[in-house]
Amino acid sequence: MIAILDAAYAGEASVAACLTADDWTSPAPIAEFTHRAGRAEEYAPGEFHRRELPLIMSVLAMLPERPRILVIDGYVWLDTDGRKGLGAHLFEALRGRTAVVGVAKSRFAGAEQWVEQVTRGDSTSPLWVTCAGVTLSEAVSGVKRMHGAHRIPTLVGRVDQLARKTL
Predict the structure, then answer these.
(1) Which domains occur in the chain, in start order?
(2) Measured between alpha carbons, how far is residue 33 from residues 6, 99, 166 in Å?
(3) Which among 74, 65, 7 is positioned nearest to 31, based on CA atoms?
(4) Tens of pLDDT along 100-119?
(5) DSSP 118
(6) What are φ and ψ of residue 56, in 5° steps?
(7) What is the pLDDT of residues 61-115, one digit of tens each?
(8) 32 φ, ψ to 5°?
């Protein structure tokens, strides 16, 4: 089982959403989970985890079993010095027991050593893939195989919509 996670914020509310799926190629989720909370931490560049990690940990606690891979909207590693992104903080919080694959929609300057660009569908805009607990080639292969004909895989788009709708 894999889990795809995202978060959303508006005013005094924040939400984490999670979809579980059988594997990378699943067109539909097995289940959906959401956790709604109060105001999230303010955004600070390079400190994304302070805002999202508590939400993600709360929604993961709702899952009936531990997924083998977590897919997040964001980076695992931020630069060539190994500065941790949301995914690395999540991997650490889970004591390295669950692999984390970061799928980001925009480039983060400095992450070139840890990232591989993935283009999907007819899009010329890449996704930026980073990971912990699996090899980069495994993570890239999984993201390429995710269901959907467009740049954003079906379940990545669906979890984003679920988080926004739950706000």
Answers:
(1) 2-166 (3.30.2170.10)
(2) 11, 19, 10
(3) 65
(4) 999 999 887 776 777 899 99
(5) E
(6) -65, -45
(7) 999 999 999 999 999 988 777 789 999 999 999 999 999 999 999 887 776 777 8
(8) -125, 140
CB 92 within 8 A of CB 118: no
Which strand ranges, in their side-by-side order, compose the sheet holding 31-37?
31-37, 13-21, 2-10, 69-72, 99-104, 127-132, 116-118
Name the phi and psi angles at 155, rounded to 5: -75, -25
Whole-number pLDDT of residue 108: 76
- Token pair of 49, please? 């985890």
Tell which residue, 7, 1, 105, 2, has the closest CA to residue 56: 7
The better pLDDT of the pair 129, 77 is held by 129
